[in-house]
Amino acid sequence: MRRAEHQIHGIINELIERRILWGASYSFLSGEGQKLFYKGVQGAMEPYSDRKILPGMYYDLASLSKVVGTTTRVLQLVEDGRVKLETPVCEILPRFCYPEITVGNLLLHDSGLMAELLHRESLTKENILERLYETPTVRPAGTGFLYSDTGFILLGLLVQKLDGVLLEESFRTHIFSPMHMTETSYIINGKAEEWYIPTECTAARGCIHGEVHDGKAYLLSQNHIQSGSAGLFSTLEDMTLFARGYLDRSPRLFGGEVYRQLLTTTSFGRTYGWSKEYGASTLYHTGFSGTSMLLDMETGRGFVLLTNRIHPTRDNPEFLEARKEMNRIFMEPEA
After folding, report:
1. How far apart are CA 208 and CA 230, in angstroms?
2. Which Gene Ontology terms cover its molecular function (predicted)?
3. What is the pLDDT of residue 335?
4. CA 293 – CA 238 distance, rounded (Å)
């Protein structure tokens, strides 16, 4: 066992022992293959506390959806010549009123759009699209980084417009099926409820379980719109397959030029869709629910971590610090 893997096992065990996490599914990938691990239980109270974490259990990916689905599909559309990174978003979505904001700006989170929709407390399924298209800007496009869910919801609508189908069908056809990912979807059917990992417990929605946690994605789903920002559910097995596709630079996802562009593009510490927080050769993304994926494209190593760190409450800063430490350890050169 690699030293880094041993240390990460220890950190996860300690987080579970201290009830900072209730359970975790995680994998390590390298040129030698992959190793998958399942620890703990689903949650804090019955029935979740009686359910051990097992292979095939579904996690709410939250913002990991941005790279697993939206970024990957947009870059495929760019590669196919269906859209350009320099294309103004309003050419495809005429209701969007900023001709200076491009597809590339949305992927890089440097569009200048506000991070969130205005007046979130009064969002409804009736007004969310209007609010989306009228999101104010806080700086000119291309002049600074501001992580924006809004931008990726717009990218999801752009994909839906270009492909002429819901994101579920687009992603399944062009990403999930080619990568043999059979357990990744906006709508998981055919499994008993105990296979869904719970997320946050709230006054309005109870313990959220088997439906999307993200509030904007939840409202959009009531309009039969799937969000490009959040909403996918998946298993560790499928996320490991996806990570393997990127690490191997699989032609089932892209041609070599797209992988080269991902690695050579750096804007405010990011490339298209992904963060480069851990180095120029790395691709990294997280999800609010407690998910993350760290890929070192130079060494061919990856670390996928799926948790429900917001269960039963999102007030869990210790996990976020522990995850940074795990990522740091993972990226240390082996002696």
Report:
1. 15
2. hydrolase activity
3. 64
4. 12
Going by CATH, does the domain composed of 1-310+317-331 fall within 3.40.710.10?
A: yes
Per-domain boundaries in the chain = 1-310+317-331
* Distance in angstroms (rounded) separating the CA atoms of residues 1 and 10: 13
- Classify 313 as helix, strand or coil: coil
DSSP string, 134-178: TPPBSS-TTS-----HHHHHHHHHHHHHHHSS-HHHHHIIIIITT
Q: List the one residue out of 307, 305, 324, 309 whose CA is nearest residue 27.
A: 305
* pTM (whole model) above 0.70: yes
Q: Are 69 and 176 in contact (CB under 8 A)?
A: no
Q: How many CA atoms lie within 13 A of 156 on its CB side?
A: 33
Local structure of residue 41 (DSSP, 8 states): B
Per-residue pLDDT tens digits for 112-153? 999 888 777 788 888 999 999 989 999 999 999 999 999 999
Q: Model confidence over 163-172: pLDDT tens digits?
A: 999 999 999 9
Q: How far apart, in whole angstroms, are the C-alpha atoms of residue 160 and residue 163?
A: 5
Phi, psi of 246 (to 5 degrees): -70, -50
